[in-house]
């Protein structure tokens, strides 16, 4: 229930609260039956008087959005039909509630931007771990040599030089043989998923994802009107052995997988499973989307070859983001073959006419420099130290808590006893100034609510330690509370 | 019919040609009944032997894609059902042709990237007209002060500082009162259109556009499965007087308009029409998308107030790109109100998690500097001189050619006698090394094929003069050929 009120607006705060809640209900962002925050809690959260909240709730009840049950709380109604407010002209912007939309309003973004001091929720690398001065110099040099890169458009497919550099990089780092012509430069791998979804997924299609998986991918496929089929993940990644009957039954448009240091579990897809997955795709003419955000960050040996390196007939679309090479640049690369690639390039053109050229030049210089391998090595070491530190700390958790110690990547996946709901735990943790990603965010259906993910790379070491300590207390309380 | 063959690929060139043409036919990018290039022309264009093309055409005919008629040429077949090649494993990537997709493969991109020396087809400002050294210094200073802007993510809605600067800029330049909370930073206004389409337009919906209009907008709305209703444009812009019955009949999800220096005609929507348009939107609960790419580039006085400045109930979504302020940054801004804005912010998060921070910082510094107003003034002067130069040149065209002298913006819209087809003219012009946008690109249906658009700001002055001279010859030949 996070939103900001606009105190400069002419619209009274009551109306703003009304509209925000009505909007979330109409878009299914708040499901029917959901318990809304108490008047006291919401007024605290939004920093408004309780009277303001009471009035907003009263109006929402009058218009059929919610029901207040004495002593039980305020609940969202089952909607029979879209309630449209009575007098649009007295309520500014109220007519907008009648505007149909096609996005599930990104459930993901509910969690994506947390403002807690100890924010362990986002999978990012701390800016302090980047060679910022070096990058700064690269940019200055690039601008000195070619100051027009700021006032020029690049090719829609991406700057040729960067594609050449990426082809070399992918070959060297991931044994992936691609030609620059097979690559498309994107705004981060997030845009890569979007381009794939927009090109190949439509209403009524089925899409297979891992359970749990990256929340934004779920939202993106859903926003295309697709139905999501979940396939469980174990220690060796996607349960490929379960795929055959599911693919047979649903004929999914694509299978979305994160084979290396799976998000959120950290699992690595074993090599035999990689081969089997590809065989299934070939047998059934299915697309595979291989999302590979941070395979360079390994602590206990390099992960197996990417699926894409085994792909003869163009079934795999490979995505790599810029997380470890200047995330602020928002540069990603997509590798695909044949006519699928040309369709993705067309989609990219429609989306934004191409990625900013300056950013491409910067990443190109960085990837092509000798510095990149030392940077990656340093990053590995720095993050391994953090991982080990957290592993030590987590040993002290009660036995009922299970921790997957990651062999690479940026996250820990922690499993609490089944009766502990981590959505509630997050609420408690935020009071202490700590945030994490609750397990529920990672499932398309039937969420397992007793997991949580923490990222050990996003904040500085002190805040990390401090955050984990505080989270400890909260977890311990919850586990004990369960016993009582 | 523009594409590149991959000479490094293991796929034989014949198969590549086969797949590229089959793919375009399957996606309706080449319509049934279209005459394909002759074997000789295609072999010249692709730089392959005639035998290679003959073989590809033979295979396409065998698989039911095309028919070759002796002495008449090669035509695309009406498709009864999707032909799927017989033996996928002998033809690499051939299985991909059976993959359904949801994009019309961006007809726009057919024209968007021309490689002719005198490229007058794209509406861009020549990089030489930007204060590149100044921008370079801004970037260096920013990085010195805050080198982490390259390794940090920004807010999904956009950097707060940039939103503040934009709010001031929009107020000063366009009398548009917005608060930073009402703004969303996008990757160019192209992404703005995309976000709106993805949020509010779906299969079977109607969307109203001007005829002619910006080709990529047509493609974007179509890629959402919408039906496009065209409303003609005259000297005072969109024929608002025709709207009422159309809106009544089709209940469009939105009306897309470019009120200032309309693309491609250059028309300016009169103030009374702006008011009337807004009244219609209010009466009918319709969204208006106001695309305003270059209203700062006026030669004969400032255009009327934006629609958005008259918008009380949040019917207008205002889009502004970064064309005149460092197009390589690909920064745009979207102004909207109420719940529509929150839905657009969610869509932005899903698309790319936010615009690169460095680029936002650069545009922020630039817009906030005193230099921006001198830059804009200089740009106006430089482009006015070019416009006048071209106006003089165009006076020498035969009387049957009509030219709209633009009062702002970047383009000329030229009308030839109805029997001259500018698609064919483009083919002739390209032989001389000149390209332009043919009229057909700007219509969703029933294209008027005797117009063309040239941009007078994208190349340097010498190439512009040279290009227009060469185009002259081609146009004169076509007009005379018509008489003979």
Automatic annotation (TrEMBL), chains A, B:
The keyword ATP-binding does not apply. Keywords: Aminotransferase, DNA-binding, Pyridoxal phosphate, Transcription, Transcription regulation, Transferase. Belongs to the class-I pyridoxal-phosphate-dependent aminotransferase family. One of its GO terms (molecular function) is transaminase activity. Transmembrane segments: none annotated. Its cofactor is pyridoxal 5'-phosphate. The keyword Transferase applies. Residues 11-79 form the HTH gntR-type domain. This is Probable transcriptional regulator. It comes from Brevibacillus brevis (strain 47 / JCM 6285 / NBRC 100599). It comes from the Bacteria. Homodimer.
